[in-house]
Every structure is written in C-alpha cells, then in structure tokens.
Amino acid sequence: MREQLKDDGYYMMHDKIFANQETLSLENLKKWAREVGADGTKFDSCLDSGKTATIVQKGMQEGQQDGIQGTPGFF
C-alpha cells in the first residue's frame, strides 16, 4: 500500500483493517485496497506474490522472542 499511496494510503488501509478485523480475508484486503484508492491489479499482484511475507514473519518471530503475544504489544 505504501508503495502506491505513500504514508497516507498506508494509514487509511491500516485503519480499514483494524476497523474490520472480524471480516479479515484476502478477498476483503483486496476490496479495501481499492476502496482507499490503490491500483487493484498492482495490489493483488504484490499481495499474491508474498513479496513482503518474510519481513512480516521476521517481525512476528522477534516479537514472540520478546514475549509479545498480541497486537498491539507493549513493553
């Protein structure tokens, strides 16, 4: 999201995800990206490719090592 819409788009998507956690799915992520103004084809391609999955997994592993058990996590 940030690649297309910079920080403003990132935070719009962030807010959309947190407001709709109960319906989180790949289908809805793609729908919400379009709602906040992203190019749907580019977003879908990026999401489907797993391009940033290793970054997310690394962050999750680091959080677990530090005792974080949920989002948000605080020290």
The H/E string reads: HHHH
Helix content: 55-70%
By oligomeric state, this entry counts as single chain
Number of helices: 4
Termini separation (Å)? 28 Å
Percentage beta strand: under 5%
Uncertain regions spanning at least 5 consecutive residues: none
Tell me the major beta sheet: none
Question: What's the number of extended β-strand segments?
Answer: 0
Structural class: mainly alpha
| Overall average pLDDT | 93
Radius of gyration: 14 Å
Question: What best-fitting shape do the alpha-carbon axes yield?
Answer: globular
Task: Note down, in words, how this protein is organized.
There is one protein chain. With 75 residues, this protein is an all-alpha fold. It contains 4 helices and no strands. The radius of gyration is 14 Å and the shape is globular. The mean pLDDT is 93.
Describe what is shown at a glance.
The chain is mostly helical. 68% of the residues lie in helices and 0% in strands.
Please outline the helices and strands.
Elements: H1 2-19, H2 26-35, H3 40-49, H4 53-65
Helix pairs in contact: 2-3
Defining key terms:
75 residues, mainly alpha
